[in-house]
From TrEMBL:
Residues 5-210 form the Yip1 domain. Pfam families: Yip1. This is Yip1 domain-containing protein. It is a multi-pass membrane protein. Keywords: Membrane, Transmembrane, Transmembrane helix.
Length: 218
């Protein structure tokens, strides 16, 4: 795989790829890498957040951290299939031609920006959270939604959240850029139609990820 061409010239990358036999190996590895990094990011943020719970609850919290990390790992592959499925279905409206396997493979390459985004976000998050003051709450405090909300907000500095928000926006636009050309050649569409097909699932995927950050800011 020519990563440089995928990043700088996705039109040429997918044009050349369209003339080859469809393979899911490289897209699978890209999504796997994204999912692993997402799992690491989720595990670290939840493990930091769960420190507010009393020591006698840490055993349960450890299990919850594992569940959250596993969900993030599986979620990467679920996102891949759902996004490819939505694009494939929408492209039918524009008389798109090509197998779902090709759509799935080409869409998988579009997760490369998410890996780069996480490689930037993880160190930033670690820097801020490693220096955060994390109080241990009593059961009475934990049962108060307002107290819990304020404590969690205080753990995540706004400078960190705004930085990750900007990274998330950049990654979403980058996804759209790559997926437009991916679906163009996967389904043999005009560029304008390919952009429309890619826009809807990209926005849904991007907004969901941004929502998780924004709800900590508000």
């Amino acid at each position: 795989m020519n990563i440089k061409e995928l990043i700088l010239n996705p039109n040429n990358f997918f044009k050349n790829l369209a003339n080859r036999e469809v393979s899911l190996k490289t897209p699978f590895l890209i999504v796997l890498t994204f999912s692993v990094f997402m799992s690491i990011y989720t595990y670290y943020t939840t493990s930091t957040m769960f420190k507010i719970f009393p020591s006698d609850m840490q055993g349960i919290m450890s299990m919850m951290m594992i569940i959250s990390a596993t969900s993030a790992l599986v979620g990467g592959f679920v996102s891949w299939i759902i996004i490819a499925g939505i694009m494939h279905i929408i492209s039918m409206v524009f008389k798109g031609e090509g197998s779902f396997k090709r759509t799935l493979a080409f869409v998988g390459y579009g997760f490369l920006p998410n890996i780069i985004g996480l490689l930037i976000s993880i160190p930033i998050t670690y820097y801020f959270l490693s220096n955060a003051h994390i109080p241990t709450l009593t059961m009475e405090q934990l049962q108060n939604p307002e107290v819990l909300k304020q404590v969690i907000k205080s753990m995540f500095p706004k400078s960190m959240l705004y930085t990750n928000l900007l990274i998330g926006l950049a990654v979403t636009l980058w996804n759209l850029y790559i997926w437009t050309y991916a679906i163009k050649y996967a389904r043999n569409l005009e560029l304008r139609k390919a952009f429309i097909v890619a826009l809807i699932p990209t926005l849904l995927f991007g907004l969901y990820q941004l929502y998780k950050i924004i709800k900590l800011i508000i």
